[in-house]
Write a structure and sequence with these properties.
alpha/beta; six-stranded mixed sheet; globular; Rossmann fold; 12 strands; 2 domains; six-stranded parallel sheet
Length: about 350
């Protein structure tokens, strides 16, 4: 693996490796672009198969954060960090304090938060070593409800673009992944009387959602074959790939998962050709970023939620641009984000 080639290909500014074997800490921090401001992105705790997998993941995720901040209109750059290890471990304090020291050493160029495999409690450990952390208990806290609300509003915008009405009453929605965001999304959808089908690898999560919303359940491997209106991927990425593409018969794909297209340059146009409206993931799931940005700027909870709700209008503009330029929605979203970053480069270069 040629690391500098990977960084150059994605336009990344910085990649930092951190290691404390006595504490079991192996961390990587990636900063993609700080044109708009300090790089903000959560810490993912995951048991990667190799160094290469961890590097590719943190580079990919940090780039997505730049685009997410730009298209949402936030004065932030994009970054991400990963901790390589077993995220089920109980002994977490020393690992996350080591990570906090790594974040502190970045001198404010990178601000972290929770992500897959981490929690507000973990961020409290990070906070013992650095001020450059958000999503703390007693402040903005768990961003999942705001993220889910933004996804819910994004689904309504997608329905408006596809059906002419944003009502979800009676629409059949399949939710893949019932973690924090997926759970709250199901609650929002159930309030609007959407028909829900859900799947997850965790039986307790499934039981909770079924009891509270009356959702039907499908096996994880069968989720792509459900005859439904809307598919909301809320687990890990790359769910639209060469193996699943021909199985999808939904009108809309709009969910919270990051990097839903395994290869954007191929699968974005493929969805367009199949008549499936795709809500670009880094646009529709920006509520979490909005939530922690609100913490930095001391917004009220209501203001953060209102800003997340504006994802509705952002997506409608992207759908209109994609139609006018006869391109896929992911390409249209990238153009909007890149235009804002390019304009900002006239003001400052790096944070």
């Amino acid at each position: 693996m040629e690391i500098f080639d990977l960084m150059s290909e994605g336009g990344h500014e910085q990649l930092s490796f951190w290691n404390d074997p006595e504490l079991g800490y192996r961390g990587i921090i990636a900063i993609h672009d700080t044109t708009m401001g300090p790089a903000l992105g959560g810490t993912r705790f995951w048991n990667y198969d190799s160094d290469a997998d961890a590097i590719v993941d943190v580079l990919r995720l940090s780039r997505g954060m730049t685009y997410k901040a730009a298209i949402t209109g936030l004065n932030l750059g994009g970054g991400k960090s990963v901790i390589w290890g077993d995220n089920k471990t109980i002994d977490r304090e020393m690992i996350f304090r080591a990570h906090g020291r790594a974040v502190e050493a970045m001198g404010g160029r990178y601000i972290t938060a929770e992500d897959v495999g981490t929690s507000p409690d973990d961020m409290e450990f990070v906070h013992m070593e650095t001020e450059h952390v958000v999503g703390l208990i007693g402040r903005s806290g768990d961003p999942s409800p705001v993220t889910a609300y933004g996804v819910y509003r994004g689904i309504k915008a997608s329905a408006k673009a596809r059906y002419g009405s944003d009502s979800l009453s009676g629409k059949h929605v399949v939710v893949q992944g019932l973690g924090h965001v997926g759970y709250h999304l199901c609650k929002d959808l159930a309030k609007e009387k959407a028909q829900l089908t859900v799947t997850d690898l965790d039986d307790e999560r499934i039981q909770r959602v079924v009891e509270e919303t009356g959702a039907e359940v499908v096996a994880p491997d069968d989720v792509y074959d459900v005859d439904a209106d809307i598919f909301a991927p809320c687990a890990l990425g790359a769910v639209v790939n060469d193996d699943t593409l021909d199985r999808l018969s939904f009108d809309i794909i709009a969910g919270a998962a990051n990097n839903q297209l395994a290869r954007g340059e191929d699968h974005g146009p493929a969805l367009k050709e199949r008549g499936i409206l795709y809500a670009p993931d880094y646009v529709i799931n920006a509520g979490g970023l909005i939530n922690v940005y609100g913490e930095i700027n001391e917004w009220s909870a209501e203001r953060s939620k209102r800003k997340a709700g504006d994802i509705y209008n952002t997506l409608l503009r992207i759908f209109a641009l994609a139609e006018s330029e006869d391109t896929s929605t992911d390409v249209a979203a990238n153009r909007v984000a890149e235009r804002r970053i390019q304009e900002a480069r006239h003001l400052q270069r790096t944070w």
